[in-house]
């Protein structure tokens, strides 16, 4: 099971001291268009083979364009033993609207 966080909720929790890993599962061309600093980039199709790049004990929040792919990856992480997982609802599109209008919408 995983939780749903809006970009605003994610930012508030991070600012309050919660140490989240932000996993961006979008494709490289999407990252070239719009990205969030300090995110770990692993395209959705590669996550299962690259789980060792993430800390299972540290919370992971998953980001994509609108929240669909990230929800699938969040489910995978929860099923494979990650201790705390969240999906960023609305994805980078909502991030741009709620937190940083400098991030292009596409």
Automatic annotation (TrEMBL):
Spans traversing the lipid bilayer: none
Database matches in PROSITE patterns: RHODANESE_3
Location of the Rhodanese domain: 16-104
One Pfam family of this chain: Rhodanese
Domain of life: Bacteria
Protein name: Rhodanese domain-containing protein
Record InterPro entries: GlpE_sulfurtransferase, Rhodanese-like_dom, Rhodanese-like_dom_sf
């Amino acid at each position: 099971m995983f939780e749903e966080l809006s970009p605003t909720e994610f930012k508030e929790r991070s600012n309050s001291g919660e140490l989240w890993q932000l996993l961006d599962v979008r494709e490289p061309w999407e990252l070239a268009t719009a990205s969030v600093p300090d995110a770990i980039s692993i395209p959705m199709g590669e996550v299962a083979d690259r789980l060792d790049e993430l800390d299972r004990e540290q919370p992971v929040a998953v980001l994509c364009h609108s929240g669909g792919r990230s929800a699938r990856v969040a489910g995978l992480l929860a099923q494979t033993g990650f201790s705390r997982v969240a999906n960023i609802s609305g994805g980078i599109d909502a991030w741009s609207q709620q937190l940083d209008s400098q991030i292009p919408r596409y």
